[in-house]
Amino acid sequence: MKRPDADLDRLLRSAAKVDEPSTPEAPYGFETRVIALWHAGNGPLDDAVEVARFLRRIGAVALAVLALASAGAYRQFNENEERTTAQTNEYAIADSAIQTEFSP
Q1: What is the C-alpha to C-alpha distance for residues 14 and 9, in angstroms, rounded to an integer?
Q2: DSSP characters for 75-103?
Q3: What are phi and psi of 42, to 5 degrees?
Q4: How far is CA 55 from the centre of its chain?
Q5: How far apart, in whole angstroms, are the C-alpha atoms of residue 89 and residue 33?
Q6: Rounded CA gap, 35 and 46, in Å?
Q7: Longest Cα pair distance anywhere in the chain, in angstroms?
């Protein structure tokens, strides 16, 4: 148990002697190369990004069409339901009146 304490003391003394933490720097010309590659925009990565954007647009358009079609179908269903119940009731009333008039 003596050995780990000695190692820890040695590490703490070494850490106390450090004046400033060193800041890592990128190699010379690294930023220029990164910016040049970014401006060039070549490679399959850009094609994949364009395909992803295209698929997102298709999905958005399909969602809008689905929403409009659903709203139209719902409206049409309600309109047909109102017409059907009103006509059924009118015919039932007329039929009942005719049957009562002509029954012996």
Answers
A1: 9
A2: HHHHHHHHHHHHHHHHHHHHHHHHHHHH-
A3: -95, 160
A4: 12
A5: 80
A6: 15
A7: 121
Positive or negative: CA dihedral 36, 38, 43, 47: negative
Average pLDDT over residues 65-77: 94
Q: Give pLDDT tens digits for 20-43.
A: 767 778 888 888 888 888 877 665
For the stretch 1-24, what's the b/e string if a residue is b when 16 or more beta carbons lie within 10 angstroms of its beta carbon? eeeeeeeeeeeeeeeeeeeeeeee
- Residues 20, 60: Cα–Cα separation, whole Å: 53
How far from the centroid of its chain's Cα atoms is residue 97's Cα? 60
Distance CA 83, CA 20 (A): 85
User: Six-digit token pair at 27?
Assistant: 């190699």
